[in-house]
Amino acid sequence: MRGTSGISRMIEEQPGVPVVILSGSIDAGDVVACAEAGANGYLPKTLSSTAMLNALRLVLSGEKYFPSFAVGATARPATEMDREPANSPASGPSPLLERLEPRERIILGMVVDGATNKEIARALDLQEVTIKVQTRNIYRKLGAANRSQAVRIAMENGWQT
To answer: Which of 24, 85, 89, 108 sits in a 20 to 30 Å window from 157, CA-based?
Structure first.
């Protein structure tokens, strides 16, 4: 990324307004540079429209969104992205994610990817109400109050997309 001074300037000029970067770059170093500069999120243009909307909702709810491909980036300060991927061959799934049933893991993966309950129901050939019940079970098992927190908790525990 050419420079991140604009991010700092935006934060100074509009305190309290979340800053999200929309970029064509999928370089992990660019993501890290934006996070270090204080951005609340980084959206590569390769995200689906649904995932992009969900990421923006996440940021507007007070959370941060940085794509999972930046998790393995090096040479950065400690951040939420500094978790070793739990689904990597060396470490296996985290104990928290192991609490989920296989179907719940599939649904969580779709939630992390930005799918709505309706989209998940269609993809799995289930009723939307079934997905609502299963997402509530996922939230309970992860200790999340809502969809945004479930995504954050999954990412913090090494969820791999």
So the answer is: 24
* Cβ neighbourhood burial of 91 (10 Å; 0-12, 13-18, 19+): exposed
pLDDT tens sequence across 62-119: 888 887 666 544 333 333 333 333 333 334 567 888 888 888 988 998 898 888 899 8
HEC secondary structure over 57-107: HHHHCCCCECCHHHCCCCCCCCCHHHCCCCCCCCCCCCHHHHCCCHHHHHH
Cα distances (Å, whole numbers) of residue 45 to 48, 57, 105, 115, 157 = 8, 17, 26, 17, 25
Tell me if 7 sits within 8 A of 28, measured CB to CB: no
User: Domain 1-81 classified CATH 3.40.50.2300?
Assistant: yes
Distance CA(9)–CA(40), nearest Å, equals: 14
